[in-house]
Amino acid sequence: MLERAIPAATADMPDPIEALRLRIGRIGGASARPASDRSAIRFGLDGIDGRLPGGGLAPGALHEILGHGPDTEHATLASQLVAALLARHDPARQVLWAMQGSDLFAPGLSGVGLHPDRLILAQCGRSVLAVMEEALRHPGLAAVVGEVEGRLGLTASRRLQLAAEASGVTAFAIRRSRRHDDPALLAPSAAASRWRISAVPSRSSGQTAGQVPGPMPDRMLWRLELLRCRGTALVSHWTLQACDARHRLAVLEPAWLQDHSRPPDRPSVAAALADRPAQAAWARYG
Predict the structure, then answer these.
(1) What is the CATH number of the domain that holds 62?
(2) Alpha-carbon dihedral of residues 7, 8, 13, 17, nearest 10 degrees?
(3) pLDDT digits (tens, 9 = 90+) for 226-244
(4) In this structure, is residue 44 part of a structural domain?
(5) Is 116 helix (H, G, I), strand (E, B) or coil?
(6) In 134-220, at which residue ranges do the beta strands (DSSP E only) sit?
């Protein structure tokens, strides 16, 4: 993926925004499409898509994804979720992914269906918002993703929202902060929706209390919360299974959750091990 990366500017290298213009300009051949002509970005789950206006995430709009707890700093689960959503969306077009540093592990995104060949990686230091806004002016892209550290104010988010509306390209702001309880993450913004994702403890399939856990845990479990969505007062949450071998998400039924979250009658070391959180996702560090 190094040949697709747009590195941060140095004394010997042009400004990253100019490099971005050159790279995206080579895609060419695309004209602006209004959001109404683009399809919603779907979870592929009726229980979520059916409750959102338009049957999924609004195209040509800005959407925020937050982590929770320690993952607020690294945004591993948020990155996996965005990659999973974009894996089947507009597959003939590329996705620009803007970030401050170089800790994104592209093969990890491939594990949830977003192939590295579709990625344009822009390592742009503190210019993430400027790079996102510039990229959103190019309708040849499937989506623009930016890892935004700290504050995303009303003015900055409004600029991204307007750029997305003008080109029809959907934007995702993956919010990151070294403070797990950073109030800036929940400050008002112009985004069309705001989501929060966190890990949920899981057990290996077919495992009962007292058995030694198998060599690999089940697919990771995620708690996905819809904190705000334009066009609906719905505020809800779902427990999802992370992508399977075919890169599909699944919603777990309440009865399953109740059965698998109940502690065993006679705890044992093996049972305690079985209840440990699933192995950390490798989307960022490999």
Answers:
(1) 3.40.50.300
(2) 90
(3) 999 998 887 789 999 999 8
(4) yes
(5) helix
(6) 143-149, 170-176, 193-200
Distance CA 50, CA 56 (A): 7
Put residue 29 in one of left, alpha, beta given phi > 0 → left and psi -120 to 50 → alpha.
left
Decide if 207 is inside a domain: no
Residue 119 and residue 216: Cα distance in Å, rounded? 29
Range of the domain at 124: 2-201+220-243
Instruction: Give the mean model confidence (pLDDT) for residues 251-264.
Output: 52
Closest CA to 168 of 142, 207, 202, 205: 142
- Helices and strands (DSSP H and E) totals, the chain: 9, 10
Rounded CA gap, 240 and 223, in Å? 6
The model carries a pTM of: 0.77
- By CB atoms closer than 10 A (0-12, 13-18, 19+), residue 273 is exposed
Distance, CA of 267 to CA of 282 (rounded, Å): 30
* Locus of tokens 């992914």: 97
Mean pLDDT of 106-112: 87
Q: Quick check: is 274 in a domain?
A: no
9 in a structural domain? yes
Number of domains in the chain: 1
In the block, tokens 């971005």 appear at: 20
